[in-house]
Specification:
This protein has 343 residues and is mostly beta strands. The protein has 3 helices and 20 strands. The protein starts with 25 loop residues before the first helix and ends in a 7-residue tail after the last strand.
């Protein structure tokens, strides 16, 4: 499984085609959107309520072998209500190829912006934290589009609303030098760039004795979870501001079942955050950086956001749901990506 933000929907998608169907009259459709927006929102009450984060971060995925990458915003614009005719044009009027991927005409684009609170004056900010590369693109210059998600196929024809991811089309020419498959890219849409653009630090773990792990009793929940495990290798890493301690826990087959992270203030030794990453149906501990001589970096730390404390992340693979970024302060805030994982 590839690491962290490279989520499972990097499967091959169907061929790129545009939907050239014209609207009956734009003025009528635009008027319809203006007059029925509130009613349609009420009708969509059966949709899942989007998860609220202090900052909405999205992921970027390549679209097959074309020159297009795609940012899905479906986690905040989920078209689950099949009766909502203002979200997508009538799919049944398209053929199976053109229905796989199409860009929006003005009325549907306007509805998308209204429901997501996005403005034509906003920008799409894309930041690759591994390469320390960034690009900002004006929303007004980008196409909005709908693309069949990676778990749907021609066998699902005719497609339902839920089969689609909805978001922005990004030309790959703007992403030259970014990480392979854009797996280390984070996306934000808004008026100002939230990224500090300070190079993050890949954590280079050092083995230490278990006695050097800070003494802190496990919580009742964690103690129960680790009841039948064995203590494995202990690791540490230091920066000017923080000390990072990582303790492995092994199952009966001596395979890593969980890892416990403690981050302490380097001056006071006070524990700032504690996290436990364990094996479950939807998660598994990710390998440590540079394990077994490879060059894969999973764990990162540093100043990611302009207006937030430093972060640390990359300790688990996620197959159900989306991975999180841990803020290093007493708030214990976890920012989960809006990764549109349909698994």
């Amino acid at each position: 499984m590839n690491h962290k933000f490279y989520i499972l929907f990097t499967a091959s998608f169907l061929f790129l085609a545009s939907c050239n169907k014209k609207q009956e009259t734009k003025t009528e459709e635009e008027s319809l959107i203006e007059n029925t927006a509130a009613d349609s929102i009420a009708e969509g009450s059966e949709e899942q309520t989007p998860r609220k984060e202090s900052i909405n971060l999205f992921t970027l995925t390549p679209k097959d072998s074309s020159n297009v990458a795609f940012v899905s915003l479906s986690d905040i614009y989920g078209p689950a209500d099949e009766k909502d005719t203002l979200t997508l044009p009538p799919i049944e009027t398209m053929d199976i190829i053109s229905a796989a991927y199409f860009t929006f005409e003005k009325p549907y684009r306007k509805r998308f912006f209204t429901r997501t609170n996005i403005s034509e004056n906003d920008s799409v900010f894309i930041y690759d934290y591994a390469k320390n590369k960034s690009v900002s693109l004006a929303v007004k210059n980008l196409k909005t589009a709908a693309m069949i998600n990676g778990y749907s196929s021609t066998e699902d024809w005719p497609y339902q609303h839920f089969d689609y991811m909805i978001g922005f089309e990004i030309n790959k020419k703007y992403l030259d030098g970014f990480s392979e498959y854009y797996q280390d890219a984070l996306v934000y849409v808004g008026p100002e760039n939230p990224f500090a653009k300070e190079r993050l630090t890949p954590i280079l773990w050092k083995k230490i004795t278990s006695k050097e792990f800070p003494a802190k009793e496990l919580s009742g929940e964690h103690k129960k979870l680790l009841k039948n495990t064995l203590t494995g290798t202990t690791h540490s890493f230091k920066t000017n501001s923080y000390n990072y301690f990582l303790q492995d826990y092994l199952d009966s087959h001596k395979i890593i079942y969980a890892r416990r992270l403690l981050v302490t203030n380097s001056k006071t030794n006070e524990i700032v955050i504690e996290k436990l990453y364990s094996q479950s149906e939807g998660t598994s501990p990710s390998p440590l950086n540079f394990e077994e001589g490879d060059h894969v970096v999973n764990q990162w730390t540093g100043k990611l956001f302009k207006n937030k404390p430093p972060v640390v992340f990359g300790f688990e693979y996620v197959s159900f749901g989306c991975p999180g970024i841990s803020i290093i302060d007493k708030s214990n805030e976890e920012i989960y990506l809006q990764c549109d994982n349909r698994h």
